[in-house]
Amino acid sequence: MASVKFCGLTRARDAELAVELGADYVGVILASGPRLLDTGRAREVLAAVPGHVKRVGVFGSQELGRIAAQVESIELDVVQLHTARGRDEIEKLRSLRAVELWAVMRVADGVLPIDYEDLAACADAVVIDSLVHGALGGTGVATDWPALAASLEARGRPRRLVLAGGLRPGNVARAMRILRPDIVDVSSGVEVSPGVKDPRLMRAFARSVLSTDITT
Which of 37, 78, 117, 144 lies 20 to 30 A from 68 at CA? Predict the structure, then answer.
């Protein structure tokens, strides 16, 4: 069974529901886009999240010192890096703050980028998201899952695989069976508008994940 991450949270009540539904990760956007939060608002959204649920901050091209400062202020457990960062930058950020570092790889047609192996070797997890030009994530677009599975088989699975991009209550079980991810990451697939989650869809997503066996 995969873990669940509800991302793009902008309301404290949505974060609280995510915890109630058994999510292991909750995420806030600190990069760009319609779900963008500043430091103070991110703290408010995550204020009631208990310690056993990991807080994820999604970052873009910010300077590493700025990322480290926000990690401390918001008390994040995971940094999700959505723009190209090489091994040196990842290791420098790791030296600034002892948090998990997830490298995002945006793929088209299920094809992994050329630097996949290098980033997978130094990141704590690889997040596979769909490549949509002009957007860092939260687009609701899925990649070619069978093609991605073939790419992972050919090039090796990362230590942890986080699957994002176009996941919804109605398709997450199929994606899990094809790719066997460690974590499934949903944002727009459980929303009524950007950043506003639909409790019914959140519940349906969690039920689907919990009822899907990916060990066989």
Answer: 117
Instruction: Note the Cα 34 to chain centre separation in Å.
Output: 16
In the chain, the amino acid numbered 50 is P
d(CA 159, CA 124): 7
CB 187 within 8 A of CB 138: yes
The pTM of the full predicted model, rounded to 2 decimals, is 0.93
Q: Which residues are catalytic?
A: 7, 124
Chain-centroid distance, C-alpha 182 = 11
Looking at residue 132, the DSSP 8-state letter turns out to be -
- Report the distance separating Cα 20 and Cα 26, nearest Å: 12
Quick one: tokens of 159? 């230590």
* Whole-angstrom distance, CA of residue 26 vs CA of residue 140: 18
pLDDT digits 0-9 by tens, 39-96: 999 999 999 999 999 999 999 888 999 999 999 999 999 999 986 677 788 888 888 8
- Residues 80 and 155: their CA atoms lie apart, in Å, by 22
Strand 183-186 versus strand 3-6 pairing type: parallel
